[in-house]
Amino acid sequence: MLLFFTINTVEIKAQPSAKVKNGSPMSIICQADISKKNDFQLRHNFTVFKNGKLVFMITSDKGEARYGIPMARSSDTGDYECTVEAGGKMKSSNSLHVWVTGMTKPILTAEKKEVLEGEVVKLRCELPEEEPPLTFFFRKINMNSTPKEKHVSELYRNFSTTEFNPVIEHLLQSRVSAYVYFFFFCISKLKRLDHDFLMYSLAEPFIKPTLIAKPSRNITEGDRMQIECSTVVAQIRGIEIILQKNKTILNSVHDEKHLKYSTVATVEDSGEYLCKVEQGRASKMTNSLLIDFTLFPKPVLTASAFRVDENKELTLSCSISGFRKANFSILRRNSNGDLQWLKNSRNLTMRVYVNNTGSYICKAEVKGIKKVSKSSLLLSSPLSCVRSQTALLSLPFPGNELVILYIIYIYYLFFLPILAPVSKPTLSVVSGLPEVVLGKPLWLICRSVMGTPPITFTFYKGGEVKKIVVNNTYATFLDENIRQNDIGGYKCDARNHHSSGMKTSNVLNITVIVILAAWQKGMIAAFFLIPIAGAIALTLWWFLFKKKTGNKLFFLISLVMNALQLKPCVCFRSEDL
């Protein structure tokens, strides 16, 4: 299998920075940016050079390598460069200068610390943590003479030795013996090597490639476009031309001077294109070419009305802004998710019923590119409308759809119901019997079993509006002001947005039951019992005194009892009057 890839760039950097103090930790990081046409694993060989000398090498399947220096020394100062080799291709980074400030303090030792005049002093100066080449400066200081200095260059060692012959020039004659102190110093520094320079003539193996697109302008989505990349080479063997878009390889040719890439323009093809030519370690690339073209938008599905009654006509229309020449089709999404073709047209007119409930979408095709409408029109049945108030919303639906429905609790929908008229409402007492005890509240319920919600219910008492409720299929009314002399019955009406209007219930007459208190019952009893007791007393008196008063007195007592609506159980003759 051919491995299509290219090494875009190789970068080198130092952490924490390119300037660090002596003794601080430091890392040299090499990163490779590689584009691949296929998904495959690629091994990278990383090589780090310092001043042209190999200092680090590693093989990895990752795009980064790290060369760590635990304690940076002055000898780590220099120009670093990284080279990445993979699959026969090689690319190097730019040079990075790293500077380690300060040096390790040199160590100076002497063979003897006390010598006689005429003896030779042997000195050794070393830098155990530094690397050659180094230059050492030895200096002898005598308080009574001019300082003397020697310098030694060490190309391969990190130490140096030298000899001094101390001479006492002004020895005091009056003393038997004397000590003269000499001070020796050692100074070291990195040695800079001089180089000769040679000039070479360099011939280009190929020229910078050119990249063009056809047509160069006014590209519309669906058009056929062609991208060409070409170069002029001295030797065709080993040439590779690579076309990339946003660092993704689109096409590649070997041992050819021209590359062509053709495709139908889609939204994914818009972006920056780049052409690269490689031969061995040499590579050149074009400036990026930005290709942008006109996209035709997704079609929009609209309805001829925001509300529609059952058995009425509804027209669905599909359109694309700015495009007239497009092939449209309108489809219906079934409950199982399948699409059912309805008509190849921009418009669809139908008479809607409850069984038309479903999701409708629109498709458009321009130059072979097909797109589905952003919206899906969902026609709802009356009974699917539950809860909440009337609302018209236009919000996005998952999957780039817009659902039109009359259910506000699905809060991201645009509502378009098929409106069914309300049925004649029924008004009844919640307790079941059309009666109420005087002084107790009356609870009524009004129902309409059919009709697209929301339904507005209005309660009346004797022709006066008592309460208005908006709900789905029923509403309740609590009358807490029941009076014995209330005239007129109760009724309710129901209406929704259907054009048929309002429906009214039958009149409900309520029986008011009066329940008397104990004192009221006592008063009534007294009212009836007192006359009865009086009549009984008169009757007894008559029997006792009959002979004295005669039948005329009985006649008077009978008249009194008749006036009180009490008929005595005795009879009298008319001649007794």
From TrEMBL:
Indicate whether Repeat appears among the record's keywords: yes
Q: Recite the UniProt keywords alphabetically.
A: Cell adhesion, Cell junction, Cell membrane, Disulfide bond, Glycoprotein, Immunoglobulin domain, Membrane, Phosphoprotein, Repeat, Signal, Transmembrane, Transmembrane helix
Q: Which GO terms describe its cellular component?
A: anchoring junction; external side of plasma membrane; membrane raft
Transmembrane residues, as ranges?
403-422, 501-519, 525-545
What membrane topology does this protein have?
Single-pass type I membrane protein
The name this protein goes by in its record: Platelet endothelial cell adhesion molecule
Q: What positions does the domain Ig-like occupy? A: 209-292, 297-373, 425-509
Its GO biological process terms?
cell surface receptor signaling pathway; cell-cell adhesion via plasma-membrane adhesion molecules; immune response
Q: Where does the record say this protein resides?
A: Cell junction; Cell membrane; Membrane raft
Q: Which GO terms describe its molecular function?
A: transmembrane signaling receptor activity
Q: Which organism is it from?
A: Nothoprocta perdicaria
